[in-house]
Design goal:
The chain is of the alpha+beta class. 19% of the residues lie in helices and 52% in strands. The termini are far apart.
Length: 313
């Protein structure tokens, strides 16, 4: 019984030590992480960046350590002055705890999440984009304060606005919730994603293409980092009431090579009508629809905006 009592006391003591360490480590290394974060932002981002606070916690991401940036905001400069590119309530980066303790190695980021964000992308009439904020430096080849070895990510409760003034195109995404996981450092890996969107609106000039279309998707994409190809497998997407199957591949180089097939087998006519913009729905409200349709589509060819090349469909 004495042996059991000693073991129990040891376990209690070990637990107390671990808890105390988990509480103290964030405070001990908080300045190091804050400094690394600010240095990286100032070195590589040509924009006005601001955040309210940075906090650390072992409990949120054990055995990693969680760095949470609160009220993060990026605003443009020059012609995009005072225009917000990104505004997020919380951004969380999960780092390998051993790289926090070891002062001689960069912080190794294994996952990140963005919550309650607004992302506003603008391309002006001269083709200049407000997201073009990366600033190359002479130290690009040198060791960075951060090392990305991504395993998972999440974007939640996020709204996205895309305005292309040059092409007169608009896209809004309301309440995006998206997660992904995979071994991002491998040459070839499976990227598994889940996505829900409350509403998608898209227009080209005065022509609406999508109006308050909801989306749910479960996707598996084979990523080949060596060849820069993305192969779609086991991809199912629901747009409003219409279920779509997607397969094919996209390759990125100087041109974007596209070979993607879309199919909606055994879809009802009513499911297809659910995608029509409100402008056209008024014309078919009095119609009674019955029957099934087999919708198939194929997008194949090369896309290059600079050369005015579009894939066939």
């Amino acid at each position: 019984m004495k042996v059991i009592g000693k073991i129990w006391k040891f376990l209690v003591l070990l637990f107390i030590i671990l808890v105390v360490a988990a509480v103290l480590i964030p405070y001990i290394y908080e300045d190091k992480i804050k400094e690394a974060l600010k240095d990286s932002i100032n070195e590589y981002v040509d924009a006005e960046v601001d955040f309210e606070d940075v906090s650390l916690s072992v409990f949120k991401a054990f055995p990693n350590i969680a760095l949470t940036i609160s009220d993060f905001e990026i605003r443009g400069k020059d012609q995009f002055k005072d225009i917000t590119l990104v505004k997020a309530a919380d951004i969380q980066l999960n780092a390998d705890l051993s790289t926090v303790i070891n002062q001689d190695v960069p912080l190794r980021i294994s996952s990140f999440s963005i919550d309650d964000a607004d992302i506003n992308v603008i391309i002006d009439k001269k083709g200049r984009a407000n997201y073009d904020i990366y600033e190359s430096t002479s130290s690009d080849e040198e060791a960075s304060d951060f090392e990305i070895q991504l395993e998972s990510y999440a974007i939640t409760n996020t709204d996205i606005s895309y305005i292309d003034q040059l092409g007169d195109t608009r896209l809004t995404i309301t309440d995006l919730n998206h997660t992904g996981d995979g071994n991002f450092t491998s040459d070839v890996f499976d990227l598994n994603t889940n996505t829900t969107i409350e509403a998608i609106n898209m227009s080209d000039g005065n022509m609406p293409y999508l109006s308050n279309v909801s989306l749910k998707g479960t996707n598996k994409i084979i990523v080949n980092n060596t060849k820069n190809t993305y192969t779609f497998q086991e991809n199912e997407i629901r747009l409003n009431a219409l279920d779509l199957e997607i397969d094919g591949a996209v390759g990125l180089s100087d041109d974007m090579k596209v070979n993607v097939k879309l199919r909606a087998p055994d879809a009802s006519f009513g499911e297809f009508i659910s995608l029509l913009p409100s402008t056209y729905k008024e014309d078919v409200q009095s119609l009674n629809s019955k029957g099934a349709v087999d919708i198939q589509g194929n997008i194949k060819g090369i896309y290059n905006a600079d050369k005015d090349r579009m894939p066939a469909y």
